[in-house]
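Exercise 7. Given the encoded structure of a 397-residue chain, write a plausible sequence.
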């Protein structure tokens, strides 16, 4: 009898030890989130004096700021058709949303860590405070202005009816860089390559002009009707100006200055027609294009005869080229540095008398046609805008 008890106890003991060894071996390690874009801005309560965190509600008083922000791509950072298409892919990790809907209040799940440090295995729980309407607003007023449950301002001298804290350092270009400068190899085929901040720091504007002075132009106006004029900043966040949807409101900034050469009106047979277009990154505080590695400028020069048939064509591209498979790798990059210039030359020797038209176009492109088709983006999603468009009539006598 006693022997039996010993045996049973021994079996139980061995069982427990084996089970614990098994547990130890299969134990998952939870890694904390470290990078700013791996995590959301912690949950925010509605600041005292307000009824909601929504941009629409800020806009009830800050009418102009709201109207301007609606033009910006910040207000489309969630609804953007390409973003939504990308997000549906299995290869897109949870962290994609942190720069596009940065507040935890805008996110369906609360992510607290990564199992074994794997970005495809976030530890998540349902967010009881998830606000779907707030999510649609993308990078809204509160994304930049609400922290620790109060509205952050840069003066602290206003008569705001809401809880406000003065923090001009928080509301500086540092805020912009938290999303506009991310360089990380997330996985072998997923690389974050937004270097607008580094490009600016390396260029001639550093210490002279920053993200805010160029993208949020200062102006004098009432920030709420009836409260008197003060220093204010336009909230269009104008950039490339490529609209998010056909016909959408947008504000364009142009980085390039164009210096086309003269074209003679008449040439003789066998005389070379030479045309030069000099482009200079005159106005951007960073390289152009910048940010999204899919952006590029297209330069097209076409010589057509009287019937519209192209007799000679030259195309060029300013931008980066990447290979994504089997591993993400930048293949080439001829983006223009601030103040850098580049000349594109077209030449043609006509062999007969004829009337010709030289059509020159420069387009600013969001992404190429192939990528757009791959992501099934239809014609609602504009791929480019034209920033230089000239036609020269030439007669070969
Ligand atoms: C009920 C009207 C009202 C609403 C709603 C409102 N504000 Fe204000 N806000 C004001 C007034 C009034 C001022 C002060 C104007 C003045 O003195 O010139 C102000 C001031 C500010 C300032 C400047 C603070 C400083 O220190 O310089 C910021 C920034 C601001 N509001 C952001 C917001 C944001 C973001 C929201 C939405 C989350 C919001 N406001 C909602 C009325 C409102
Ligand atoms: C000296 C003025 C200036 C400064 C400083 C500046 N920008 Fe720009 N930025 C421009 C201009 C002009 C364009 C438009 C370029 C174009 O598309 O032709 C632009 C374009 C952009 C774009 C769109 C890029 C693209 O290729 O489509 C982003 C994003 C951007 N800026 C962010 C920033 C951030 C972030 C900072 C601060 C680190 C900054 N900018 C500093 C002038 C400036
Ligand atoms: C991408 C970040 C960002 C977003 C989004 C944003 N702001 Fe601002 N806002 C700023 C910064 C930065 C300043 C301060 C500029 C300075 O003082 O140098 C500012 C300043 C202000 C001010 C003070 C007055 C002024 O014009 O300088 C008000 C009021 C304000 N914002 C309201 C709003 C409202 C309302 C929205 C949404 C409709 C909004 N902001 C969206 C970054 C943002
Ligand atoms: C929370 C992250 C975040 C912050 C903070 C932020 N941005 Fe952005 N910004 C974005 C994203 C994401 C987009 C692209 C949205 C889209 O196209 O769907 C964008 C777009 C832009 C564009 C337009 C680029 C284009 O395609 O033309 C400009 C300009 C810009 N931001 C400037 C700024 C400036 C200036 C600041 C600081 C005051 C700032 N941003 C702060 C995330 C951010
Ligand atoms: C570090 C912040 C950050 C993270 C993380 C991030 N984005 Fe963005 N995203 C941006 C900024 C900034 C822009 C605007 C860049 C520009 O115009 O130069 C942008 C723009 C975009 C655009 C619009 C491009 C266009 O041409 O208008 C898409 C689509 C997009 N991101 C998809 C994603 C996907 C998918 C992920 C996850 C794999 C992701 N983003 C993660 C910051 C971020």
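Solution.
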């Amino acid at each position: 009898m006693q022997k039996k008890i010993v045996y049973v106890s021994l079996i139980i003991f061995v069982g427990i030890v084996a089970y614990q060894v098994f547990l130890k071996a299969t134990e998952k390690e939870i890694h904390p989130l470290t990078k700013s874009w791996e995590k959301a801005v912690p949950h925010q309560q509605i600041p005292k004096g307000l009824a909601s965190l929504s941009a629409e509600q800020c806009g009830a008083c800050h009418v102009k700021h709201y109207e301007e922000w609606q033009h910006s791509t910040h207000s489309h950072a969630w609804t953007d058709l390409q973003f939504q298409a990308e997000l549906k892919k299995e290869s897109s990790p949870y962290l994609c949303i942190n720069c596009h809907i940065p507040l935890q209040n805008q996110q369906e799940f609360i992510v607290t860590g990564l199992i074994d440090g794997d970005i495809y295995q976030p530890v998540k729980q349902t967010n009881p405070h998830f606000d779907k309407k707030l999510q649609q607003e993308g990078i809204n007023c509160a994304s930049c202005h609400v922290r620790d449950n109060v509205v952050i301002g840069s003066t602290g001298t206003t008569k705001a009816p809401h809880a406000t804290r003065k923090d001009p350092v928080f509301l500086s270009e540092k805020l912009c860089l938290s999303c506009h400068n991310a360089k990380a190899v997330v996985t072998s085929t997923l690389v974050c390559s937004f270097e607008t901040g580094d490009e600016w720091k390396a260029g001639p504007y550093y210490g002279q002009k920053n993200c805010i002075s160029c993208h949020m132009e200062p102006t004098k106006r009432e920030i709420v009707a009836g409260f008197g004029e003060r220093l204010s900043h336009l909230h269009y966040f104008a950039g490339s100006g490529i609209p998010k949807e056909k016909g959408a409101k947008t504000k364009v900034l142009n980085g390039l200055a164009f210096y086309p050469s003269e074209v003679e009106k008449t040439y003789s047979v066998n005389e070379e027609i030479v045309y030069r277009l000099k482009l200079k990154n005159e106005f951007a505080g960073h390289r152009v294009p910048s940010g999204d590695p899919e952006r590029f400028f297209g330069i097209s020069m076409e010589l057509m005869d009287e019937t519209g048939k192209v007799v000679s064509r030259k195309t060029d591209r300013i931008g980066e080229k990447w290979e994504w498979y089997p591993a993400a790798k930048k293949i080439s990059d001829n983006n223009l540095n601030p103040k850098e210039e580049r000349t594109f030359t077209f030449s043609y020797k006509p062999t007969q008398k004829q009337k010709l038209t030289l059509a020159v176009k420069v387009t600013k492109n969001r992404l190429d046609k192939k990528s757009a088709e791959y992501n099934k983006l239809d014609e609602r999603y504009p791929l480019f805008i034209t920033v230089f468009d000239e036609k020269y009539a030439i007669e070969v006598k």
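Remark. The first strand starts at residue 30 and ends at 31. Students should compare their own answers with the one above.
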